[in-house]
Amino acid sequence: MKTSGLFGVARHRVKVKSAKKPIKLFPVGDIHYFSNSFDHKTWERFKAYTRECQKEFTCLYILMGDEIEQFSTSERQSLKNAKLHDTARAMLEADAHNRFTDFWREIRYMNSDNGKIVSVLEGNHNYVFDDGTCTSSRVAGFANAPFLGVAGILRLSFEYHGRFKTFDIAMHHGVGAGKRRGASMNALEDMQVIFDADMYLQGHNHDKCAVPGRPIQKAYLNPKTGEMEVRERKLYLGRTGSFTRGYRAGHADYNVDAMRPASPVGWIEWEFRLRTQERNDRKKTKEDKVRHKGIYLEVRGINHD
């Protein structure tokens, strides 16, 4: 397997203090920190933007894998079969740990103030330590966040004045590397056959988009009227971008060698706004006016270069 093949499920509770301010979600992956193609300027813009967001908004982060430039699947297999002395393996362990430590210093702000890393995936570029942990699982451990493996489902439970609204996110580090944009979208829509969720996320191929999906039509029996109705379930699709730039003058890159199209460098963002809807089935006092409102989510995707 290219990864551990691990699948996980987790839940994160989000206490909404004010419906006037959105909750921000940043699924970020394929950073490839330490790579020769790593785009420092875009990464610094991302950090500056999210730090500023955390001053005012609740910011949630999903790490989608390939955070650090480490060994690929074939390279890990070669190392596993290599006849290395204990000192050589210890040198590899120390280097991988130092890389992890340096990267954690870069992202630990995400777990401070109004920020929280809510889940971590692994990618196909990873280092597996002698104790069985990998780079991504160590990030999850330091962040006190669930490590889901290569894929998983995260449930966000929004709580507002005693009322709850759930939102399920199905995610996978990513599959496929088609040259056409349609291949990226097809891979996201393929997930809908496997997972029942509100949002579908993938990384891996460095494509970037945050768009509405095709809504699902569901039959609904109205308990008040006894009539059948059609209700719509909105879906959202995201490819989570990257922080690598392959095509640069005088710079060698495997994407150039394979004549792959350049990927849009940057990140995506999702905004969740909690809205209330009056219920007409009961009389309300001023004190419990908010309590007796229904709540729903407005979701908006944003693409950042």
Instruction: Summarize the helix and strand pattern as letters.
Output: EEHEHHEHEEEHEEEEEHEE
Number of domains: 1
Instruction: Find the structural class using helix and strand composition.
Output: alpha/beta
CATH fold-level name? Purple Acid Phosphatase, chain A, domain 2
CATH architecture: 4-Layer Sandwich
Helix content: 10-25%
- Let me know the largest β-sheet: 6 strands, mixed
Low-pLDDT residue intervals, each spanning 5 or more residues: 279-292
Radius of gyration: 21 Å
**Strand-residue fraction?**
25-35%
Strand order of the largest sheet: 1-6-7-8-12-9
Number of helices: 6
DSSP strand count: 14
Task: Estimate the global geometry from the Cα principal axes.
Answer: globular
CATH class category: Alpha Beta
Q: What do the pLDDT scores average to? A: 89
Task: Quote the distance from N terminus to C terminus.
Answer: 33 Å
Protein described:
By secondary structure, the protein is α/β, with parallel strands linked by helices. It has a single domain (7-304), classed as Purple Acid Phosphatase, chain A, domain 2 (4-Layer Sandwich), CATH 3.60.21. Helix content is 23%, strand content 33%. It is built from six helices and 14 strands. The protein has helices at 40-54, 73-81, 86-107, 135-143, 181-190, 254-257; strands at residues 7-15, 23-28, 59-63, 115-121, 147-149, 151-160, 163-172, 199-202, 208-212, 216-221, 228-233, 236-240, 267-278, 293-304. It has a six-stranded mixed beta sheet with strand order 1-6-7-8-12-9, covered by helices on one side. Strand 6 (151-160) and strand 7 form a beta hairpin. Helix 3 (86-107) crosses helix 4 (135-143). The radius of gyration is 21 Å and the shape is globular. Mean pLDDT is 89; it is low at 279-292.
